[in-house]
Write a structure and sequence with these properties.
The complex is a heterodimer of chains A (418) and B (292). With 418 residues, chain A is of the alpha/beta class. In chain A, 47% of the residues lie in helices and 13% in strands. Chain A contains 20 helices and 13 strands. Chain A has a five-stranded mixed sheet. In chain A, helix 2 packs antiparallel against helix 15 and helix 18 packs antiparallel against helix 19. The longest helix of chain A has 16 residues. Chain B is mainly α and 292 residues long. Chain B has a single domain, classed as MetI-like (MetI-like fold, Orthogonal Bundle). Helix content of chain B is 77%, strand content 0%. Chain B is built from 13 helices and no strands. In chain B, helix 4 crosses helix 12, helix 10 runs antiparallel to helix 13 and helix 12 packs antiparallel against helix 13. The two termini of chain B are 43 Å apart. Classes of the chains: A alpha/beta (418), B mainly alpha (292). At the A-B interface, helix 1, helix 3, helix 18 and helix 20 of A face helix 1 and helix 2 of B.
Chain lengths: 418, 292
């Protein structure tokens, strides 16, 4: 029976196609894929000996597709991977460590990268990805509504934030709100949790640490925004059109990443174009931390054209190329030297991100992370809907997390004994 | 003996195809459901553990699984009778001789079946919208309070049922229509001569006439509705508070989102057993009725 299961699921190594060492297969995930071909034109002129095959992949299908390709042995050479997926693919031994390549490189200077973003690419030491663009969360807020409520600047601490949220609710009345925290998204809660010193998991990622007072405070703060009716108990799909509603003043704060700048510019009515702004996250006691999100370029370990692939990565990491990438897509660069470019210096919306990038932190780097984040969201939803108390939710969350991490513990124990 | 052997030769290709593409995968899935096959095992078979019925017993202790099962049963119990009722009603209407433009209505009622669910979901999301939705607008015009269709755990499933029934009733309507048209006209004539009312004609001529087809339709609809997935996937993502989370959604998450294929296979087999039992009951009921 076990052999049969093996038969059904074994990675079919023998079917792996061999590729010439000068062909780089590049899976570009998301909208960025549409621009990757443009971006690579100059590279192909520079290095006529290298061929690049670009394949576009939507974010929603990328994870399944990559795992299936892993099982089938058809992973490409180069890929833009969400950096929270790196621990998972490291556990599969699917990624090439890049420290040596980066150390010897004349194009890629690791100390030019934002430390928090670069660190999200390290798993227990080695570096597995070179950041391509960043996706950290900041606050989008309605400047005009804040002013009407009597505040001239965005908050920097939770206390200030609380005051502003309360004042806005009083201003806008019963059927409008101060902030939108979509109940189907875990990022707002995760971002707030990362602002506390606790690590969310304990003993090297063996158990959940959600009964910790730090997390309880975060969950309490998060839930209080719903209890006081400052945030609607809604998901993104229920709101239907987040940008329209932001324009209508249904809420004044929204936590999101850099890609939304272009969306808000495009979708907000013209008379409100000056009414919104971005600001770094407020923290429990001062300017707060945010999540070190983004996409990184990785080389899969079975690649037969690693030198050529690395050449493509070096090219894509050049400040001049990253600047063009920013102009094409609005994706923000992970290198400090690129941030000195005029387009970024002049954008008022980018400033908050530059400030935030000095204060970013990765969520726990375990392959099971995304599942745990999903459980955090469900636990928070139960508190928000009044089904359980904060304490009950934290206990249940710890139990669930410990169950999810059972296999990891078993493997760690076994490896220690042998 | 010889003709028999020849027969075997003829069916062998088909048997091989069925064996390779059906029985072997099912057996492999059964084997897999007895292991903890996951991401780690995908990397290295040394990380695969043979855990016997652990997946099954853990599932039976998992509150979320029971919640998903409860939701699915609720959906089936509410949706199947409603769906068949609406289909039958629509079939009777478009079959009625007094109705005009029957061809047009037949097409219109069938249209939702062939539209793409994802596109339809966008429209329905607006219909169910708490503030701007047509449904709440209609409720308000008869003086009822607005309902938070997609956000209230009590109303989300009924909303999904409405969507599913609207999406699917046309298909059964066509099958039932064919059955209705097969009932000989002289039976109705005889009933009318005997002085049977409209209801009596329906009860004693129409229903027995379409009985076997109705049984078939109810089994098909039931198996279809047990596999509730796409509607909550595009409308609510299983929420709010997992009120629209179904067994198949649970299986999808376990298998393709978290890659615990062992547990996902166990879910599949539990769902199979459940559907098998319910179908048996339905067949038994159908046989008793036709026997009586």
């Amino acid at each position: 029976m076990l052999a049969l299961a093996a038969l059904a699921a074994a990675p079919l190594g023998c079917t792996r196609r061999s590729h010439a060492a000068n062909v780089v297969r590049f899976w570009a995930v998301g909208r960025e894929g549409e621009y990757a071909v443009d971006l690579l034109q100059d590279f192909l002129r520079e290095r006529p000996d290298i061929e690049v095959e670009v394949q576009k992949l939507p974010w929603t299908a990328a994870h399944e597709k990559l795992l299936t390709a892993y099982a089938g042995g058809t992973l490409p050479d180069l890929c833009s991977l969400g950096n929270t997926w790196i621990p998972e693919f490291t556990a599969l031994n699917a990624l090439t460590p890049l420290d040596q390549l980066a150390g010897a490189s004349r194009e890629i200077a690791l100390d030019d990268y934002f430390a928090g973003i670069l660190d999200s690419n390290r798993v227990e030491g080695p570096l597995f990805g070179i950041p391509w663009y960043i996706d950290t969360n900041v606050m989008y807020y309605r400047r005009d509504l804040l002013q009407q409520a009597g505040f001239s600047a965005p908050p920097t601490t939770w206390d200030e934030w609380t005051q502003i949220l309360g004042a806005i609710k009083t201003l806008v009345g019963a059927d409008r709100y101060s902030i939108l925290l979509p109940l189907n998204e875990f990022w707002p809660l995760v971002t707030l949790s990362l602002q506390q010193p606790s690590d969310l998991l304990r003993d090297n990622g063996r158990y959940g640490d959600f009964r910790n007072a730090d997390f309880r405070r975060t969950l309490e703060f998060y839930a209080s925004m719903f209890r006081r009716d400052w945030a609607p108990k809604m998901t993104n799909t229920q709101v239907s059109n987040v940008w329209d509603e932001f324009g209508r003043g249904m809420f004044s704060f929204y936590i999101s990443g850099p890609w939304n700048i272009a969306e808000f510019k495009k979708r907000m009515p013209r008379e409100l174009q000056d009414a919104w702004m971005t600001a770094p996250m407020p923290g429990p006691h001062g300017p707060g931390t945010s999540s070190a999100g983004g996409a990184s370029l990785v080389i899969f370990s079975h690649s037969q054209s690693k030198p050529a692939t690395w050449a493509v990565m070096e090219y894509l990491s050049r400040p001049a190329v990253q600047e063009r990438f920013y102009q094409l897509t609005g994706n923000m660069p992970p290198r400090r030297s690129t941030w000195q470019s005029s387009a970024l210096v002049e954008s008022p919306y980018a400033k908050a991100f530059l400030t935030q990038l000095d204060r970013v932190r990765s969520p726990p780097k375990v392959p099971e992370w995304e599942r745990i984040a999903q459980e955090m969201r469900l636990a928070a939803e139960r508190v928000v809907q009044g089904v359980s108390t904060v304490d009950e939710a934290c206990v249940a969350l710890d139990r669930k997390t410990d169950e999810i991490l059972e296999k990891r513990r078993w493997m760690m124990d076994r490896d220690r004994h042998t | 003996m010889r003709p028999q052997r020849a027969a075997w030769w003829f069916v062998t290709p088909a048997l091989i195809v069925i064996g390779v593409f059906f029985f072997l995968p099912v057996l492999a899935a059964l084997a897999m459901s007895l292991t903890d096959f996951d991401l780690y095992a995908l990397n290295d078979f040394g990380d695969l553990r043979w855990i016997g019925f652990e997946n099954y017993s853990r599932l039976l202790r998992e509150p979320l699984f029971w919640k998903a099962l409860g939701n699915t049963l609720y959906f089936v119990a509410l949706g199947v009778p409603l769906s068949i009722g609406v289909s039958l009603g629509a079939a009777l209407l478009v079959n009625s001789k007094v109705a005009k433009l029957r061809g047009l209505f037949r097409t219109v009622y069938f249209a939702p079946v062939v539209t793409t669910l994802v596109a339809v979901a966008v429209v329905w999301r607006y219909i169910f919208h708490t503030r701007y939705g047509f449904l709440n607008y209609s409720l308000a015009s008869i003086g009822l309070d607005p309902v938070d269709w997609m956000g209230d755990p009590r109303w989300a499933m009924p909303a999904i049922v409405v969507l599913a029934v609207w999406k699917n009733f046309g298909y059964n309507m066509i099958i039932l229509l064919a059955a209705l048209q097969n009932i000989p006209e002289d039976l109705y004539e005889a009933a009318r001569i005997d002085g049977a009312s409209g209801w009596q004609q329906f009860r004693h001529v129409t229903l027995p006439g379409i009985g076997p087809v109705l049984l078939l339709v109810s089994i098909l609809t039931m198996t279809g509705y047990f596999q509730l997935f796409a509607e909550p996937y595009v409308m609510t993502e299983g929420g709010p508070l997992q009120a629209t989370y179904s067994v198949l959604y649970f299986m999808f998450d376990e298998g393709f989102k978290w890659w615990s294929l062992g547990r996902a296979s166990a879910v599949a087999f539990l769902l199979f057993v459940l559907m098998f039992l319910v179908t048996l009951v339905q067949l038994r009921l159908g046989r008793e009725r036709s026997g009586a």
